[in-house]
Amino acid sequence: MSDLASEQLAPDDTGFARLAMVTIDCADPVALASFYGELLGWETRHVDENFAILDNPEGGSPLGFGRVVHYRPEPWTEPDGSKHFHLDFYVDDLDEATAKALALGATEPTYQHGRTLRVLIDPAGHPFGLAPLEQ
């Protein structure tokens, strides 16, 4: 391998950008930030009628929520539905975490594509997964 190729593949090459935040489109940023704040135990940094930000207490990227006029949920609730993104979370107890998420306003679609990951739908219609943390 040439010296130039070796330099380009060096393990310390981390690219030129860092993730600043993941922002989720929705109709009601205040409500969705409240849902995920309770689900994750994260604190709200900013909230207004158009945008909300939750801080990641572990120091990672925050989670944002932005108002979109005429927002329509993704069609995940059908087995052949498409999605633009989804979030997956590790949980200690899958059944307990599912019950808590449902109590916060999530819904559980009939279609589930796996046995170890439980798919739920947040109050804005975005799919998210809960998976047991293997110990």
Overview of this protein structure:
By secondary structure, the chain is an alpha/beta fold. The protein folds into two domains: 53 residues, 2,3-Dihydroxybiphenyl 1,2-Dioxygenase, domain 1 (Roll), CATH 3.10.180.10; 50 residues, 2,3-Dihydroxybiphenyl 1,2-Dioxygenase, domain 1. The chain has three helices and seven strands; from the N terminus they run αβαββββαββ. The N and C termini lie far apart (41 Å). The relative contact order is 0.17. The model has no long low-confidence stretch (mean pLDDT 85).
Structure summary:
With 135 residues, this protein is an alpha/beta fold. 21% of the residues lie in helices and 26% in strands. The chain folds into two domains: 18-70, 2,3-Dihydroxybiphenyl 1,2-Dioxygenase, domain 1, CATH 3.10.180.10; 86-135, Roll (2,3-Dihydroxybiphenyl 1,2-Dioxygenase, domain 1), CATH 3.10.180.
Layout of SSEs?
Blueprint: H1 3-8, E1 22-26, H2 29-40, E2 43-47, E3 51-55, E4 63-67, E5 87-91, H3 94-104, E6 118-121, E7 127-132
Parallel strand pairs: 1-4, 5-7
Antiparallel strand pairs: 2-3, 3-4, 6-7
| Overall pLDDT score | 85
- Structural Rg: 18 Å
What gross morphology would you assign?
globular
**What count of structural domains?**
2
Q: Give the CATH H-level superfamily of the largest domain.
A: 2,3-Dihydroxybiphenyl 1,2-Dioxygenase, domain 1
Number of E strands:
7
Strand order of the largest sheet: 1-4-3-2
Annotated CATH topology of the largest domain:
2,3-Dihydroxybiphenyl 1,2-Dioxygenase, domain 1
Uncertain residue ranges: none
Helix amount:
10-25%
